[in-house]
Amino acid sequence: MADSDTDWTPAVSFYFNVKVIGFDDNYDYAFKEVAGLSAENKYEEIREGGVNDFFWKVPQETIYPNLVLKRGMATMDSRLSDWVVDSIVNDFQKKIELHDIEVSLLNHESENLITWTFRNARPIKWTVSDLDSMKNELLVETLEFCHTGFTVSADDSMGLGLLF
């Protein structure tokens, strides 16, 4: 935990890693971007009889967006690539595999600060960036996963003071 206000260092968003639980080939998870780290409560508005200046918001469900991962197009064969292909273009000939995916924000010493664990994830979309001979850019693939929600854990010894 931080001893004083001067020890506080904000977390950076560019140092993170991604892991698919159950896969051993960790070399295949160098992603440039992660999106979908949010949750939203849907609610029903209920008006109270005789009270016209407000209404109650009763929670109904929590909505999680898809997890979206972007990286330079991988030219190697890997367990992750096989999983994506099997899940999206297999005509449902194989059993759908669900895996937890961990996204960990790291500090300058490569220690986990925050970890989001996406439960029961499976690939649902694969996209490759446009090919353009007039641009000098890497080919980027985007992998999108649906999931049943996520949990968040933080290392309390890092002194983040998170609300969750």
UniProtKB/TrEMBL annotation:
A Pfam match: Phage_T4_gp19
InterPro entries according to UniProt: CHP02241, Phage_T4_Gp19
Gene Ontology molecular function, alphabetical: structural molecule activity
Signal sequence range: none
Highest taxon, organism lineage: Bacteria
Name used for this protein in its record: Phage tail protein
